[in-house]
Amino acid sequence: MTKIIAIANQKGGVGKTTTSVNLASSLAVAERRTLLVDCDPQGNATSGLGVQRGQIEKDLYQLLINETEPSETVCTTALRYLHLIPATRELIGAEIELQALEARERILGHGLSSMVSQYDYIILDCPPSLGLLTVNALTAAKTVIIPLQCEYYAMEGLSQLLRTIQLVKERSILAWVLKVSCLPCSTAGTISVTRLQVRSELTLKGGCSKRWYPAMFD
Predict the structure, then answer these.
(1) How far is CA 94 from the centre of its chain?
(2) Domain 3-217 has CATH 3.40.50.150
């Protein structure tokens, strides 16, 4: 069964794109058929895989708004087993245009459904926000990985993200259990927090079950 993984955190600079690109590339090197979907209008995952934006004919915007066939938006990369649905600046307008569409939070999942059988893993690189692009990714995903800086302000944002994930779980009719894991990526000097504090934040404020993330901490 295809594993769809969203890499999400509304805080910028925590390592979402680095995690997405490295995870997707590692899976491809292991000969797992992998699709990386760049959901961020900044397009850093796209450029990180060596795809020149000027050469992109169709991107995620066309899939979401123009109902373009997903296969027409896919780009090849230098790795045989790694494909990419790129992002360009046009994706900025998708947040506004999605507002007027029916079942707007499910459009990405619906678009990817025809491609699930072609890949072992689909990695969704989310933008640093909790807008409709991120909500679409969370609704489409079966697993969420949250790259996290172990410092105070990141912990404040974590609670908000977990509440959003909980709302997605409650308001979406999902045929699977959405699993959430936290990935500590860096420590910010003297204001760093411990892994125990992160665990407490996830469990008490986020309403999360400990079974979601033991491998990240133990």
Answers:
(1) 16
(2) no
